[in-house]
Amino acid sequence: MIDSVILDLHKRLQLGEISCVDLVEEKLSALNQNHYNTTNFLLDDLALSLAKNVDQKIKNKEKIGLFEGIPFGIKDVYLLQGYPASASSNFLKEYKSPYTATAIQKLLNVGAIPIVKENCDSFGHGSTNENSIFGPVKNANNMDLVSGGSSGGSAVNVAKGYTVFSIGGDTGGSIRQPAGFNQVYGLKPSYGRVSRYGLMAYASSTDCVGPIAKSIDDIALVLNVISGKDFRDQTTFETAEVDLSKKVDFQNLTIGYYKDFLENDGLDNEFKNRFLKLLKTLESKGVNIKEFDFKEVGTLVSTYYVIAMAETASNLARLDGSNYGERIEANTLKESYAITRSQNFTSETKRRIVAGNQVLSQGYSDEIYLKAVTLRNKITQYFSNDFQEVDLILSPVSPSSPPKIGKNLNDPLAMYLSDIYTIGFSLAGLPTLSAPFGTPTGIQITGEKAKEELILNFAKYLKEIIK
Q1: Active site residue 75
Q2: Domain containing residue 169: CATH number
């Protein structure tokens, strides 16, 4: 059975039950009035212009494509030519995009309508969506709680129905964790499946472009549009389209999980018990379950953040007020650079730049950075070995429920530790879906590279058996 908001809206538009202009105006009005602080910039002029074109086609009795007239949101770290791209930062608050990101252009090409640039942690730096010049995004289910980061605005917009789907960005969990916190689906595709061209780089070796949606079918539909080789991004590769109509014999699958993840002191007991209950349900259906030890669980967070911060320092070195943003003048050029960067970056971004430069500096790079690279290679190999024995790996999305807004803002270590279950799969470039069941913040389903079809089919199966 297909469960798709996109397909439903497409049918209603084609039959004339609703007009595209009315649909877009309804979404824009909800975004403009929402109390969750999800909106950085409304794209109302562009959206309504495109909507009128769709209505004219329908009036002329022309068939419209599946995505034509479907309103979607864009995390404010993607470029859309002629429109703001602030990365929720002071640095780029007046910046206008000179070109359009590949993933966004592919959606425009099939007629999808962008309606909003969405609030996020500044430059993607955070796990709570509080590190934004526009203020924190509030959780879709409890406004006192954080929405998760860094794609918090994107996840909340989908959860509240302000957008049909949104394009988020995932470096170490920034799609999966907010999707879990707001009880929607979020996919981090295989590294390289979707072009990163036009995405502001955070950590280039783990950055991924992916969809957030209310249904598994919509995740698959969007993924099929945005995937593929792009000559502008040499890490991309061609893949076959995901087909969720294929029959899969789930009883012949072997599902793995990591005992060490469940023995983590930070894991809430309710989360642990519900995850174990899910494993027992699978066993009762004849699915094979295999337990693994994760040999480097104690070094996951440090390995990821050493690499991510090093790449952050390199990627943001270009922001000095000369080519991007407004320079603050001082007595010397060096002083001007220092003041411009000091005043325009958030505390969290500055923390990551300083730490990144430290681990890359002479005397520390061999001891810290190169050791982290070696550990990353070991972690990747461990996953590769484990997938010789299992088809998929299940894990929690987060160790506990979303904290209250402000609780972890001045405790970066607590924020970093909240990513413990997501970052390993990012380091290995593996496709991972966050699904809103199994624990209060959902579960992750992870497969080998380019196994998104199996992951999504298994998610549909899981959804059915745990009702």
Answers
A1: yes
A2: 3.90.1300.10
